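Re: that chain you flagged

S.,

Sorry for the slow reply, it's been a week of failed gels. I finally had a moment to sit down with the sequence you sent. For the record, here it is as I used it:
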Amino acid sequence: MKGFWHDAAEFFPILMSGVALTIVVTIGSLLLSTVLGLIWAMMRVSGIKALSMLSASLINVIRGIPIIVLLFYLYFVMPDLGVTLSALQAAILGLGIAYSAYQAENFRAGIEAIDKGQIEAAQSIGMGWWLTMRRVVLPQAVRIVLPPYGNVMIMMLKDSSQASTITVAELALQGKLIASSTFKNTSVFTLVALMYLTMSIPLILLVRHFEKRAGKK
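Prediction finished late last night. Pasting the structure tokens below so you have them in one place:
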């Protein structure tokens, strides 16, 4: 145990640089997935058949491609097509696109859970589709989707480790590099696991809080 704490003190500053990149990848991809997911969901519930079918097709395609393959495509294949992305850009874009499909389903479920009578009442007083969504439906849908949204945040934080496959020096890759150079696998990966757990616990507690609030309504 004494050896572990000595190793932790030595490796902690290096791993913290990986934590910083992990947070950047997680926040960037979360924002992107939220925007894209909301767009896909709005298309699904728009009532326009072509948009609904297009959104459903996009979601199915995205969900059918493994995240790691999407990252490889963005980082290694896109340059052949004339679009060069940095490893960090490709990681944020890849994870954001991958999780937008799951975000879209969460948002769609939240929107469809709103009482249709409220929508009809809003439209009866002259509100258009977009105004009804913005003022009546979405504010209520947000409260419904908060618990699953929190779960997505947790999964995205853990899946940010896949960015290491395209050389983003986030926490997992930093741990791997340290372990390969020092051969102190137990100390390094125990510390890496504890750091991921430390970042995840506040999100887990936040999700639990949202679930309790939703359960009281």
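What I noticed first: The CA atoms of residues 158 and 196 lie 7 Å apart.

Talk soon,
D.
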